[in-house]
From TrEMBL:
Protein name (Swiss-Prot/TrEMBL): CSON014850 protein
SUPFAM superfamilies recorded: Ankyrin repeat, POZ domain, RCC1/BLIP-II
Ranges of biased composition (kind: Polar residues): 997-1023, 1057-1082, 1121-1134
Organism per entry: Culicoides sonorensis
Encoding gene, per UniProt annotation: CSON014850
This protein's UniProt keywords: ANK repeat, Coiled coil, Repeat
InterPro entries: Ankyrin_rpt, Ankyrin_rpt-contain_sf, BTB/POZ_dom, RCC1/BLIP-II, Reg_chr_condens, Signaling_Regulatory_Domain, SKP1/BTB/POZ_sf
């Protein structure tokens, strides 16, 4: 089988044949072919299969993301080097644009994760604007969410501090409290917010009373202010923020004002210096639509009139002699409906849709202009205006007047004061854009287009060569009003994280911004919860005289009717009174009164059915059970009246099959004397309950109490805390859905409750919590909630989450909230998204006619194999996208090169220093080894000289101890020899050496491998009494025979340590045999001999040492071994030390809260493991047995079962 590396291609890695591209893109349209076969086909077709293009400039990646269900191929192509941001020649669309257009969200998320940019196409439409949207609103349209960003020098964006916010983000004060804004107004020092409930919030500097809060204090986050309305139904309809004052207009045509009155802009006859709170302006107007607050003036706009008050700077159309207008004054009667009114500090512009003229007041003059191209104007925004007089602290302004207009055909024109003509605006990115709204942003332009917000930089009054079209008809007004030799170019830059923008504003300096975006839940709808009936049907159908759950049995007419005392006492006062008064402590209850009234047994069974199941008695049932229907019915009504079941009598009259349950909800605390089961919970908490209620409401307890647990009165649920189990038990009793939904829960509590309800199969309560969790879905947590819903089979939560993602995918994609979601879950999202917007019917790519046939494809790939998980370059697998791009370009800035040179110099210096330290450490280690070797040789020589003059053994116990040591050594040798014969083949790490002298045998680790005769001879030597033998006979064998051997841990150690000791005798002949010592074959690592072989003096000293000293030596020995292999140890970082301390603290806190039973079980298990591995008697290695410390993620998890779709994981 060929692979990409072994196949002989007829092209190179730089192949650009369109024939190959056409074959690859057409083959990818075949939906019936698997991804693995298509990957083999496109890989074999061309060596440059990842980048080759077809006739339309599309690559394999363009087609793979468009077809759908090609996630594996998309991932394979990107790993093989496909260009992610490549535009096709057909429409300039990138791969991520096509993925969104065809509804393949999983592929779009994967592309974004791997560095795909949101590049616009030839029509200047970016990928986010191709996300589909619902057209019919479901929720309130005015419920907008507020985004703010800017320099925030004067606290006028209300984020609670004065820090700069470079990117748009939610205003937390409104988001947390679910406050929705419908209108905003901003100026240099403060901002006003109008909610959909007609409440006013303010933020910013309060100097001069501009905030209307009653003082001059600065408010750093939005605060609600009170307005003294005269009527209860009075509501705010318009707001405006000036530089030093604020205006408010209500639906009762009343105007309220607050702030500084330096220029007479408050409109009050008393002309106060300032107002600290809102005060009504006395004015008699009707049909008021809007108020406008500038730096020096205020205006009230009605349908056809304008009222103004403040300082006259030429913008009122009045004479120069008029200095100030203290009270509201009507400017002029236009006699037409005013559609648009805009103003600056120096000018006023008015436009009426019924007129063809545009009128403005500027420099004490009034002028009119015709509309550009005779198109209806939809919006006007003005800026600038020359102020010549220095009138009472009015600042002088030299900025010329400009106003920009937007027409109904989305044409943009700018009127310039110096030419007094309109200049048409063009955009560098596209010839035509359907602009929705625009305003001036200092010298720039802020505009919205298809829901996105852009900031445009204008290049004004460029020379433009007019194109004259010959013809008889000439529009003379065009030459006068519209400039033909000039144009203005606007370069747009998108503001990120803003989508579905509705309204926006900025301060005069263009430094702070507020945007109102569409509510993400505007079209979001939750499913209706269908409440199930609250009854005990399953309990009634399963009760019998032989079960162990029923605790009362009624006797009537010789028949027995088993029942449950708590249900009877809760739903029938008559039967409750009989039980408590006549049979308080008896299980059998005789219904003598009902028997005397002539109640048939079958009818009483129907009454019990009604008590348990709420099912009424039907007419046909009475006719079937009795012969005389009317007589039985009369008798039954009398009995039901005695029993107090009036609702059942009414159902008999109506003969209705359905009846509303007349019984009140059951409280667990109502019948404490009937408790028969105790739930043992975490932290020794308990809940007392009734078995029959738990069995009837929950299958979990029904299975438990119906079988082996029937006689038990306790249930061990110690893995669950009481705060989670209490709501479940209360719901089983009350079935109160509203009580559950109205409570406030944290996110973690909701998810834990869903998990526990899934464990106990409480479907109703689980569905309620899923609905509550669905209300908390946001653009930032939707990915986590979706994975949680998929893991715990939460159908309601999963569908709601997918619906929310489908409605707000543009925001979610830009926030990267789904990049960590499982690809399998995202592929399910693809299917839901296409069905939600019905994309299957018209956005589906059918197989191309020139695509390869199935037979030809099978024969073509029969000898070729690919790995869909293969990387183009394994070295770049862990690199980020930006690092890969730098590696592709190969061009780095001078600063980056200098930085890398400094890094290289530092790394080289560190390496040299570490090498020197390593060399020094090696030299010290060699010197220590030589000193240790000399010491060992001296001790060995001394031992051999002393052994020759030994004459007796001091005590018999000492001989027995040495005898046991010999037996242990022999046993180890036999076991190791048998293991070597069983087929274990270990590679020798060091070549075997034959040692001639004891001194030379201490250079490396030894392993005794005695011959079979050795053990036999030594065993026979030790059988006789040691007292009758000479001292020399006792030492006729080599000391190597009792050398400790490095043993394997585990079962072998257990087997060696647990074996029985046998008596061994020493022969009288005193023959001494020395066996050659062979270098061992150690399967783990090379260990110095000094760590294994000990002289008799060392052995005697070690027998005297205490346990703590031996443990310390073992640890030092272990660290020396590591240093001998790895070199000098590196010091721990401060972060690692702090992390270790935090883990220890969390571990001890976890131990404190653990129950005593579990702690005792763990202690017992630790002792058994220590005994099994013989920890206390082993000194050649360190074995530590302790509790496993849980990680932070494991500690945060709930200790309950986790249910998945196919299996249960505990």
């Amino acid at each position: 089988m060929y692979t990409i590396g072994t196949f002989d291609y007829d092209c190179t890695k730089k192949c650009k044949k369109t024939e190959h591209g056409n074959a690859i893109t057409s083959a990818l349209t075949k939906r019936a072919v698997s991804n693995e076969k298509l990957a083999r086909y496109i890989t074999k077709m061309c060596r440059n299969f990842a980048e080759v293009l077809d006739d339309e400039g599309r690559s394999a990646l363009h087609m793979a993301v468009s077809v759908g269900n090609r996630y594996d191929i998309v991932e394979y192509l990107i790993r093989q080097g496909a260009v992610i941001n490549l535009r096709d020649r057909e429409s300039g669309q990138t791969a991520i644009t096509r993925a969104i257009l065809y509804g393949n969200l999983a592929e779009a998320i994967f592309l974004s994760k791997n560095g795909a940019n949101l590049l616009p196409d030839n029509d200047f439409i970016n990928p986010l604007q191709y996300c589909y949207r619902v057209k019919k609103p479901i929720d309130n349209e005015n419920r907008c969410e507020t985004f703010v960003w800017g320099r925030n020098k004067n606290y006028n964006i209300g984020i609670g501090n004065s820090q700069e916010k470079t990117t748009p983000d939610y205003l937390d004060e409104f988001r947390k409290n679910k406050i929705y804004i419908q209108k905003v107004s901003m100026n240099s020092y403060h901002s006003l917010f109008l909610t959909d409930d007609s409440e006013l919030y303010v933020t910013g500097h309060g100097k001069g009373g501009r905030l209307g809060s009653g003082d001059e204090m600065t408010i750093i986050s939005p605060k609600k202010v009170r307005i003294p309305f005269r009527d209860d139904d009075e509501k705010i309809i318009s707001i405006s923020a000036g530089k030093n004052h604020s205006l408010v207009l209500t639906n009762k045509n009343r105007v309220y004002v607050t702030g500084s009155n330096t220029f007479g802009q408050l409109g009050l006859k008393s002309n106060p210096d300032m107002l600290m709170s809102f005060t009504e302006v006395p004015v008699n107007i009707s049909d008021a639509k809007r108020v406008i607050a500038n730096d020096f003036t205020s205006m009230i706009v009605t349908d056809n009139e304008i009222y103004m008050f403040g300082t006259n700077l030429g913008q009122f159309g009045l004479k120069r002699e008029v200095d100030k207008v203290i009270t509201p004054r009507k400017l002029i009667n236009f006699n037409v409906d005013l559609e648009i009114v805009e103003s600056t500090n120096a000018a006023l512009i008015c436009y009426s849709s019924t007129s063809t003229l545009l009128q403005y007041f500027y420099k004490y003059e009034t002028k009119t202009y015709k509309k550009p191209l005779m198109e209806r104007i939809t919006q006007i925004s003005a800026t600038g205006g020359i102020i010549q007089e220095n009138h009472k602290n009015c600042p002088r302004s030299d900025r010329p007047l400009r106003f920009i207009v937007l027409t109904e055909f989305h044409n943009v024109f700018i009127w310039y004061e110096n030419t007094e003509k309109f200049v048409k605006c063009t955009f560098t990115s596209s010839r035509f854009l359907e602009i929705d709204r625009l305003i001036w942003c200092n010298e720039d332009i802020l505009l919205s287009f298809m829901g996105n917000l852009y900031r445009g930089t204008a290049t004004h009054e460029l020379k433009h060569r007019a194109i004259h079209i010959p013809g008889e008809y000439q529009e003379t007004y065009v030459k006068k009003e519209l400039s033909t030799d000039q144009k203005t170019k606007i370069e747009l830059k998108r503001i990120p994280l803003i989508d579905k923008i509705i309204d926006f504003c900025t301060d005069p300096e263009g430094e702070n911004f507020i945007g109102l975006v569409e509510n993400p839940k505007k079209y979001f709808s939750l499913p209706e919860f269908i409440e199930k009936t609250y009854d005990y049907t399953n309990l009634f159908s399963s009760v019998n005289v032989y079960d162990t759950i029923h605790d009362v049995c009624f006797e009537l007419g010789g028949r027995h009717f088993p029942a449950h005392r708590i249900i009877i006492q809760h739903r029938s006062e008559y039967l409750k009174k009989i039980i408590n008064d006549q049979f308080p402590n008896e299980k059998l209850v005789k219904l003598q009164e009902l028997s005397d009234l002539g109640l048939p047994c079958d009818i009483f069974e129907l009454i019990l059915r009604y008590i348990y199941t709420n099912q009424p008695i039907m007419k046909n049932e009475i006719e079937r059970l009795t012969e005389n229907y009317h007589q039985t019915l009369t008798m039954l009504k009398k009995i039901l009246t005695v029993m107090g079941l009036t609702e059942l009598i009414n159902s008999l009259k109506k003969n209705s099959q359905k009846i509303k349950s007349p019984f009140t909800p059951l409280n667990r605390e109502d019948f404490p004397d009937l408790y028969d089961v105790t739930l043992k919970l975490d932290c020794t908490q308990e809940i007392r309950a009734h078995k029959c209620i738990l069995m009837s409401r929950l299958e979990y307890f029904n299975m438990m109490f119906d079988h082996s647990w029937a006689e038990q009165d306790t249930v061990n649920l110690q893995s669950i805390a009481i705060e989670y189990m209490q709501p479940i038990i209360d719901f089983l009793y009350k079935n109160d859905i509203n009580d559950v939904r109205e409570a406030k829960y944290s996110d973690n509590y909701l998810y834990n409750m869903i998990t526990i309800c899934d464990q106990f199969f409480v479907e109703d309560l689980k569905n309620i919590f899923e609905l509550i969790a669905s209300e908390k879905i946001s653009v930032k947590n939707c990915g986590e909630i979706l994975e949680f819903a998929d893991a715990y089979n939460c159908e309601i939560l999963r569908n709601c989450c997918m619906q929310y993602i489908s409605l707000n995918f543009s925001r979610i994609l830009e926030l990267r909230s789904l990049e960590q979601t499982d690809p399998k879950v995202l592929q399910q999202l693809n299917k839901f998204y296409r069905q939600f917007y019905s994309l299957v019917s018209y956005w589906t790519i059918t197989p191309y006619a020139n695509a390869v046939s199935d037979d030809d494809l099978e024969s073509f790939i029969s000898d070729f194999m690919v790995d869909l998980n293969a990387n183009r370059n394994p070295d770049e697998e862990n690199l980020t996208f930006k690092q890969k791009q730098k590696n592709k370009t190969g061009k780095l800035s001078k600063t980056t090169l200098d930085k890398r040179n400094y890094e290289k110099t530092g790394i080289i210096a560190m390496l040299e220093e570490s090498n020197q330290d390593h060399i020094k450490a090696q030299k010290c280690l060699e010197m220590k080894k030589q000193e240790l070797q000399e010491e060992i040789n001296q001790v060995t020589v001394k031992f051999e000289s002393e052994a020759k003059i030994w004459t007796k053994v001091s005590e018999k116990s000492g001989a027995k101890k040495k005898q046991n040591n010999v037996l242990a050594a022999l046993k180890v040798n036999d076991v190791m020899q048998n293991e070597s014969k069983s087929g274990n083949s270990f590679i020798n790490l060091t070549p075997p050496k034959k040692l001639d002298s004891p001194s030379s045998s201490r250079g490396t680790t030894m392993e005794r491998t005695p011959e079979p005769s050795t053990s036999k001879n030594l065993t026979s030597l030790l059988t006789k009494d040691s007292e009758e033998e000479s001292p020399r006979n006792k030492l006729t064998f080599s000391l190597a025979d009792i050398t400790p051997i490095k043993m394997k841990p585990g079962k072998n150690r257990k087997r060696l340590s647990s074996g029985s000791t046998q008596s061994v005798s020493i022969p009288e002949n005193g023959s001494s045999s020395h066996h050659p010592i062979v270098s061992p074959s150690n399967p783990w690592k090379i260990v110095p001999l000094t760590d294994v072989i000990k002289s008799p003096i060392d052995l005697e000293q070690e027998s005297i040492m205490n346990a703590s000293t031996s443990m310390k030596k073992s640890q030092n020995r272990k660290s020396s071994e590591i240093n001998s292999v790895q070199g000098p140890s590196q010091p721990k970082s401060f972060d690692s030390i702090m992390q270790n301390e935090r883990e220890k603290k969390q571990y001890f806190e976890k131990i404190k809260t653990k129950s005593l039973v579990l702690t005792q079980l763990e202690e017992k298990a630790i002792e058994e493991l220590k005994e099994f591995y013989n920890v206390d008697n082993i000194f050649d290695e360190t074995i530590t047995i302790e509790r496993r410390r849980m990680t932070c993620e494991e500690q945060n998890q709930v200790n309950v079962a986790k249910w998945y779709q196919d299996k249960k994981l505990i």
